[in-house]
């Protein structure tokens, strides 16, 4: 069955550093991959989408890569700030349209 | 725009009781979804509705029913609540941004505790 894996352990980094979060998938060939941010007690919020034919996508301090050979996406936040602290969810998407969400990685940025 | 709204925000039920979770969106989206989120499990799709008048099962539909009342509203019903249904429930709606691409917009969630 399709499986999505994200770092289960929380990621703790110092303000100003680059945070890198990993999303691996198996038994799946998504056409797209989305990343969402979720704050405690709130619903997820869409951040970025990358297509299977795109290697990299950027939006302000965010960068996403998509390696269909490794079946992996990396999500980078450069110059991280305490306000970036949240849980980040990856969600590969097939051509049928439905998303499959990973369990999320909690990021904590310390001042 | 209120986006996606959900009621209630929090509910406590006894085993065997029934309840309906309400969801509404004001973004004119065709597709709507119900997810549950449990610690360490991520978001799991319960039911979805690709358009008004249609509903389909997701990954974990057992114990739930849904109604797509109109384009705006999509409700989730628990006929006989069980402790295993203790969870946080999220409603979402989506807009198509490409041939197959859809971006989802989530509500604030309903926290359900079944005793």
The outline of chain A comes out as globular
Mean pLDDT of chain B: 94
Mean pLDDT of chain A: 93
Tally of DSSP β-strands of chain B: 11
Provide the structure class of chain A: mainly beta
Q: Estimate percent helicity of chain A.
A: under 10%
Structural class of chain B: mainly beta
- Sequence of secondary-structure elements of chain B: EEEEEEEEEEE
Amount of beta strand of chain A = over 45%
Which spans of chain A of ≥5 residues are poorly predicted at pLDDT below 50?
Answer: none
Strand order in the largest sheet of chain A? 1-3-8-7-6
The parts of chain B where pLDDT drops under 50 for at least 5 residues are none
Shape of chain B: globular
- N- to C-terminal distance of chain B: 36 Å
Radius of gyration of chain B: 14 Å
DSSP helical segment count of chain B: 0
What's the SSE blueprint?
The complex is a heterodimer of chains A (111) and B (115).
Chain A: E1 3-6, E2 11-14, E3 19-26, E4 32-38, E5 45-51, E6 56-59, E7 62-67, E8 72-77, E9 86-93, E10 105-110
Chain B: E1 4-7, E2 10-13, E3 19-25, E4 31-38, E5 42-49, E6 56-57, E7 64-68, E8 74-78, E9 87-96, E10 102-106, E11 110-114
Parallel strand pairs in B: 2-11
Antiparallel strand pairs in B: 1-3, 3-8, 4-5, 4-9, 5-6, 7-8, 9-10, 9-11
């Amino acid at each position: 069955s399709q499986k999505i894996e994200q770092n289960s352990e929380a990621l703790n980094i110092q303000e100003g550093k680059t945070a890198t979060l990993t999303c691996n998938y198996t038994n799946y060939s998504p056409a797209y991959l989305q990343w969402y941010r979720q704050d405690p007690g709130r619903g997820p919020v869409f951040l970025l989408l990358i297509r299977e034919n795109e290697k990299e996508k950027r939006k302000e301090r965010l960068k996403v890569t998509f390696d269909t050979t490794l079946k992996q996406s990396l999500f980078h936040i450069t110059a991280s700030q305490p306000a970036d602290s949240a849980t980040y969810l990856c969600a590969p998407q097939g051509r049928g349209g439905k998303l499959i969400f990973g369990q999320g990685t909690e990021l904590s940025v310390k001042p | 725009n209120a986006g996606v709204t959900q009621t209630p925000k929090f509910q406590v039920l006894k085993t065997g009781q029934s309840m309906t979770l309400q969801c509404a969106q004001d973004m004119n989206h065709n597709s709507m979804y119900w997810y549950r989120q449990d610690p360490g499990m991520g978001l799991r799709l319960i039911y979805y509705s690709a358009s008004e008048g249609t509903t389909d099962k997701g990954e974990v539909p057992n114990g739930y029913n849904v109604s797509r009342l109109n384009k705006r509203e999509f409700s989730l019903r628990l006929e006989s609540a069980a402790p295993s249904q203790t969870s946080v429930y999220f409603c979402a709606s989506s807009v198509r941004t490409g041939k197959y691409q859809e971006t989802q917009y989530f509500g604030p969630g309903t926290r359900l505790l079944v005793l």
